[in-house]
């Protein structure tokens, strides 16, 4: 029977998914940088003559593309099977409070609510100290609080689980017949 996933296992799955997401964001960013360079820049002949992409392009095109990549990654996996690749590795499954697969709306709310506390903490870090390190540390603390909240919640839910009416479960191992046992059985039948 599935149980509520513990914070350590959830974080391990996020590390796996994070590697995939970084690769996807790199590809999206590279493609958009090339496109923006071709469309909007005179690159010149030397590196001193090269320009940077316009701020409006970075904010109006690249940032939304990165957000859509993140939402699309989680949304597609959660809608299809309730599991990302990292979650499959650690036998985790995210379902709605009725036990079904997430809708696009639930996926979006879950992603945004998971990002909300780290973003808020980053803003507070920027206001209090202003350094990049303070912003990073504050964001990481907000991120960890989302998951450490599971330890203090009676049902073991993270903050974003509660805000999106979802739950992440640890599913039991499925007993598979080993290849060796299959071959042995076939040999005995012959």
From TrEMBL:
Keywords: Cell membrane, Membrane, Transmembrane, Transmembrane helix. It comes from the Bacteria. InterPro entries: Pra-immunoreactive, RDD. It is a multi-pass membrane protein. GO terms for cellular component: plasma membrane. The keyword Transport does not apply. This is RDD domain-containing protein. It comes from Moraxella canis. The lineage of its organism: Bacteria, Pseudomonadati, Pseudomonadota, Gammaproteobacteria, Moraxellales.
């Amino acid at each position: 029977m599935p149980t509520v996933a513990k914070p350590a296992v959830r974080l391990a799955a996020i590390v796996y998914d994070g590697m995939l997401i970084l690769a996807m964001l790199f590809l999206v960013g590279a493609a958009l940088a090339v496109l923006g360079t071709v469309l909007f820049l005179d690159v010149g002949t030397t590196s001193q003559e090269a320009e940077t992409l316009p701020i409006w392009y970075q904010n109006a095109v690249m940032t939304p593309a990165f957000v859509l990549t993140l939402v699309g990654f989680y949304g597609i996996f959660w809608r299809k099977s309730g599991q990302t690749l990292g979650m499959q590795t650690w036998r985790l499954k995210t379902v709605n409070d009725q036990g079904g697969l997430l809708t696009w709306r639930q996926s979006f709310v879950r992603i945004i609510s998971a990002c909300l506390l780290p973003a808020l903490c980053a803003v507070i870090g920027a206001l209090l100290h202003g350094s990049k390190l303070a912003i990073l540390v504050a964001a990481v603390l907000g991120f960890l609080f989302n998951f450490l909240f599971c330890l203090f919640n009676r049902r073991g839910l993270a903050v974003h689980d509660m805000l999106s009416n979802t739950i992440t479960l640890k599913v039991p191992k499925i007993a598979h017949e080993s290849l060796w046992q299959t071959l042995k059985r076939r040999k005995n039948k012959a």
